[in-house]
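Appendix B. Chain record.
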Amino acid sequence: MTNTCLIVVPTLNEARHIGRLLDDLLVEAEAMDARIVVADGGSTDGTQAIAADVAARHSRVTLLHNPRRIQSAAMNLAVAEHGGDARYVIRIDAHGKYPPDYCRVLVAEAERLGVDSIVVPMTTVGRSTFQRAVATAQNSLVGTGGSAHRTGKSAQHVDHGHHALMSIAAYRAVGGYDETFRFNEDAELDYRLGQAGYRVWLTDATSMTYFPRATASGLFRQYFGYGGGRARNILKHRMRPRARQMLPLVILPAVLLAVLSVFHWGFLVPMAAWGLACFALGAVATRQHFAEYGLPIVLAPLVGVAAMIMHFAWSAGFWLHLARTATARPRMGVA
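Structure tokens predicted for this chain:
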């Protein structure tokens, strides 16, 4: 399978993970005769030095400077400069954990099914207490709203999922990632793939493990970006949000409405109902996932707090992007 695929690892300050990850990926690259490209966005923690050292010792590894820093630009640049006549591109997140045959299974699935894009189930695993609470929320209904690639649903065609493998022909045909997106660039690309007639397949043959943000502020910033990215996606393509995406939209209005509770307690009801729902579903998720994360039921309220941070940040990011767009249009002369 000479030059079957290009394995791309976008990085930005991933020194803790990149060395071990490249060691694992080299085994796969040797087996598939594939190339690995580390597209670095200007790391300052030693990531570039580690990757450069591996590249100096292994001709299959290339360190590529990504001046735009973001993942969408990293992927586009790697495919443009090193895609050559490769059939597939595989996107690897540096802070994830993968089975030893991850890339080989993806290529085998693509060959067997003849699909244009493969997405994978993603299980979130935490190390610290807060991370474990976030993981419990993200792996359950309270944190994902039932997203197929988060809740372990069986193999099926989907509209969107966690990016793993794409046909380079399909990738190039739709123009790759939109580099104006810092968040939600994967869902935006999946939408264009679907509109162009390409198929996205959620596999059950392999999966990846994701390590969540370790602090409340980091989690807030992440989901604030997700919300803004989703709003940008909807505006760009005039999409109709799914029901599970509509629910978080009421969170920011509910919180703002609660400010009026100084005049009447009834204004607190929507926010209180949301909080109670998060804590109740968090308790259910904690009990369901105890064997996986060992998070005691006494810490279930922390799962509810993590879910509330995600919901509020997503909602705030979404509405702020809409507000910015609405106020920017007159100045830009857009009707």
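Further analysis of this model is presented in Appendix C.
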